[in-house]
Design goal:
By secondary structure, the protein is α/β, with parallel strands linked by helices. Helix content is about 45%, strand content about 15%.
């Protein structure tokens, strides 16, 4: 859905991200989180039982991205959660069954895939945020 608050480059980025693997690189404040949220929203609607992951390299960035997404009212807040090493592994396994949108570090996702707590066939979208080089 195209809104007046979209800038043209953001709209084009969302369109591209919806149908192709894409790397979006923009300076701070130009809408990377906004673009990611709109891509997540589309996948969330298209694949109601699919699993969506937003990965960030640190727990503070994971928390920041989750808070940004929660401000968008189109999401069922009960479908969104943080999974990290501080959450007991048994609880994480339950969350993977119950929830649809996960904010995590790549390490937690990798460990949980390796331990078979996540069904990789249910993953419909993975977004890597704030890559540190």
């Amino acid at each position: 859905m195209r809104s007046k608050s979209f800038r043209e480059y953001q709209f084009k980025a969302v369109q591209t991200c919806l149908f192709q693997n894409t790397l979006v690189s923009l300076p701070t404040g130009l809408g990377k989180t906004f673009i990611a949220a709109n891509v997540i929203l589309n996948y969330y609607k298209w694949f109601p039982t699919g699993k969506i992951f937003f990965l960030a390299p640190t727990r503070p960035l994971v928390n920041q991205q989750k808070e940004a997404l929660e401000k968008i009212s189109s999401f069922n807040q009960n479908d969104i959660c943080i999974v990290n090493g501080q959450v007991d592994v048994r609880k994480r396994a339950l969350l993977y069954d119950e929830k649809n949108i996960f904010f995590s570090t790549p390490q937690t996702m990798d460990n949980d895939l390796e331990q078979k707590h996540i069904n990789p066939h249910k993953i419909v979208l993975v977004i890597f945020g704030k890559l540190l080089l």
